[in-house]
Amino acid sequence: MNKDDQIKTLCIAIEDQSNIIKKMTAELGSNEFQIKEYQEIVKELSDKLEMYESKYGKVFKRSED
């Protein structure tokens, strides 16, 4: 393999790696967004449960072993 072929091969490999990094970065951003949404849902449900329990008493109780 001559030097030009080696350089072309390396350029292709670098471009492929760059594309993989871009894809993974986008996926990471999407996952972070989903996590934030789930955290908000859990917070809202926890607040609603707390309000319900303050009005009607405990909903979930520990079972006696």
Largest sheet: none
Q: Strand-and-helix sequence, N→C?
A: H
- Strand elements, count: 0
* Arithmetic mean pLDDT: 93
Q: Report the helical percentage.
A: over 70%
Task: Indicate the low-confidence ranges by residue numbers.
Answer: none
Form type: rod-shaped
Structural class: mainly alpha
If helices are DSSP runs of H or I spanning 4 or more residues, what is the number of helices? 1
Q: What is the rounded Rg? A: 26 Å
CA(first)-CA(last) distance: 73 Å
Proportion of beta-strand residues:
under 5%
Could you characterize the architecture of this molecule?
The chain has 65 residues and is mainly α. Helix content is 83%, strand content 0%. The protein contains 1 helix and no strands. The chain has one helix spanning 3-56. The longest helix has 54 residues, at 3-56. The chain is rod-shaped, with a radius of gyration of 26 Å. It starts with a helix and ends in a 9-residue tail after the last helix. The model has no long low-confidence stretch (mean pLDDT 93).
